[in-house]
Specification:
Largest interface: A-B, 40 and 40 residues
Shape of chain A: globular
CATH topology of the largest domain in chain A: Dehydroquinate synthase-like, alpha domain
Pfam families (chains A, B): ADH_Fe_C, Fe-ADH
Number of domains of chain A: 2
GO molecular function (chains A, B): alcohol dehydrogenase (NADP+) activity; butanol dehydrogenase (NAD+) activity; metal ion binding; methylglyoxal reductase (NADPH) (acetol producing) activity
Radius of gyration of chain A: 20 Å
Structural class of chain A: alpha/beta
Keywords (chains A, B): Oxidoreductase
Number of helices of chain A: 15
Oligomer: homodimer
Chain lengths: ~400, ~400
């Protein structure tokens, strides 16, 4: 096991009705806050009114910023940071899915940062330059990105056609409220995309050349089984509390550091390729991942790593067999069929994407060098995987 | 899933050589500390010198208290609290196994508490009375109790022949250094006992009437598989780093809240029975657990809960079959055989315990009412299980 620091201080308040604690939790950190959200859905379902009520009960002053996009834009981050500076706000409270929380982290960082976080953090990856930030907190309404318990943020720059991530320990939310009932209204399409996103986070960490990481693999298999068990239930019956709860908590645990701490390597090539797709076409992240993942698996599979696929087949799907490659191919097919069962398409053509930007995307994905670790993917490899997925 | 708060702020520094950070980590919280340890083993293996060196480099003032017993005594807690008050110490740093860390928590609590923690917390279980404590930190040298990431403490009172636990969120260590190489010198007997203790913590949470807890069960199965895979390796080859590392991290994750958060119920009857054994006979906790666990399983098994044992058989041991009760009995036998393979005996007679104090122990174990949830055990049930284990 590799040396690691595990430091996950986010206080999670999980379950039906936990929003009633939001005022008290905020009060521990701030008296004037930026309330950040996306479109009007939280006003329609009553969550907005509840949040305002419980914040007001604790005399929290609130400045609002709404309209965060599904792929949150750096312009919104700048607007939010201006508001925080102008009003001396002390905390950014995101109410929404991963996009809103990612945007809140951008705002929290930019508010205290003298340079431009897009250039220094997202593009140049100089994460160490960020030494302070406003505290971030969240009320999660969509299980997918894990942003509610980690310091990661992915932002989009439409002018540059780029979607880039950064991360910092100081951006881990101080608290996150996870109420599964808020995800009852998530539609089938987003429920499926969220489930794929969670599974992809696990695949990116599970599939690696790391010869060790036994404990981490066993935990990830447990989380994969949880999503595979409950995603079809939530898909068919959106108000099944237990399904929504298991998926929501699995999502947070899949990307809060628990599953990667101690691993020698992780992959993340599929995410980097997908970021190119959603930067160019603004598609739903989980759908892009669902299309690309099985092709990536087929492309990287070789005799060095076939045991990883066998382990996945045995321990997650109960698929066994004498021929390792046949078992591996079976489980890749099984994975694609599972995504299809949630109406996730199998090809880029299905979602209206043609090959016209493949070369651009392959160039952009590998601009800092080869991506991934299971197999190091260069320009031609990325181009090949995109072409397979056509 | 039941509503829960997950709040595990302990910063874990894991891996070979992390002790070099102890001074810097302490400095964040304190400049004068109590250094608490057990016998002379940390002086023999050089750890004591290293700790002193790295603390001194950061100008930390140190008052020492050594001689913590394997079942830490309330008298040591009182002595430590007197030292902390007298010298205005600001943090208690435990260097040792779970006993030393438990003792450090007792000292940290008693120092700031005006009453007697033995009476109010251990005996009367009025945990809410504890509102402040010194910060606790640890350098772990034995993987077993999970004390390094939680707020639990178990103390012994030899005058009253009692071993009682208490817990408080405010006693969770601010940081813990987990270096698997410190466990290389743990002998076979303690290595086996530690592995059983970790597995027992998982059993106490895994086996419950809780109809839900899917995610939690899958994670616990992963942790059980990890201990089952690596305990025999560490037992045979005490300096196998990866075995020691996986066991150490599994130990922390098995009792830091991760596996119980969201569960509707847990059991803990076996632990309560074992505390009677080690209070009366001062035996090693993990050995007591290893003897009692299979008998407890046999005693509580019934048609309401047989599915739990089948799940355990299928997912942890790969034991399948058509008859649920046969599968359950097979996996109980398998569990006992596994313990035996680590030279953990199967009966109380094997460790020199006769039935003379069984009635006392059964009375004491159930003094606050029935124990456990899989089956609520009253006086006569505890007596029966102890008799089966004879």
């Amino acid at each position: 096991m590799k040396n690691f620091i595990y430091d996950v201080p986010t206080r999670v308040l999980f379950g039906d009705g936990q929003v009633s604690n939001v005022g008290k939790e905020v009060k521990k950190h701030a008296s004037k806050i930026l309330l950040l959200y996306g479109k009007n859905s939280i006003k329609k379902n009553g969550l907005y009114d509840e949040v305002i009520k419980f914040l007001t009960e604790e005399n929290i002053e609130i400045i609002e910023l709404s309209g965060v996009d599904p792929n949150p834009r750096i312009e919104t981050v700048r607007e939010g940071a201006d508001l925080c500076r102008k009003h001396n706000l002390e905390l950014v409270l995101a109410v929404g899915g991963g996009s809103t929380i990612d945007c809140a982290k951008g705002i929290a960082a930019q508010t205290k940062y003298h340079g431009d976080i897009w250039k220094d953090l997202c593009v140049d990856k100089k994460f160490n330059l960020l030494t302070e930030a406003l505290p971030v907190a969240s009320i999660l309404t969509l299980a997918a990105t894990g942003s509610e318990m980690n310091g990661n943020s992915v932002l989009s720059n439409s002018k540059e056609n780029l979607k880039l991530g950064f991360n910092s320990y100081i951006l881990r939310p101080v608290f996150s409220i996870l109420d599964p009932t808020y995800t009852f209204s998530v539609n089938k399409y987003q429920t499926a995309a969220g489930a794929v996103d969670i599974m992809s986070h696990l695949f990116e960490q599970y599939f690696s050349p790391d010869k060790k990481g036994y404990l981490q693999s066993r935990i990830m298999e447990g989380l994969l089984k949880t999503v595979i068990h409950y995603a079809p239930i939530a898909y068919e019956n959106p108000t099944n509390y237990d399904a929504r709860a298991n998926i929501m908590w699995a999502s947070s645990l899949s990307l809060n550091g628990l599953t990667s701490a101690g691993k020698e390597s992780t992959d993340w090539a599929t995410h980097q390729m997908e970021h190119e797709l959603s930067a160019k076409y603004d598609i739903t992240h989980g759908v892009g991942l669902g299309i690309l993942t099985p092709y990536w698996m087929e492309y990287v599979l070789d005799k060095e790593n076939v045991h990883r696929f066998v382990e996945y087949a045995n321990n997650v799907w109960g698929i066994f067999g004498d021929d390792d490659f046949q078992v591996a191919k079976k489980v890749i097919t099984k994975t694609r069929e599972f995504f299809n069962s949630l109406d996730i398409p199998s090809t880029l053509t299905d979602i209206g994407i043609d090959s016209s930007k493949f070369e651009d995307m392959a160039t952009s994905a590998t601009r800092l060098g080869p991506i991934g670790t299971m197999k190091k993917l260069e320009y031609k490899d990325v181009l090949e995987i995109l072409t397979m997925a056509l």
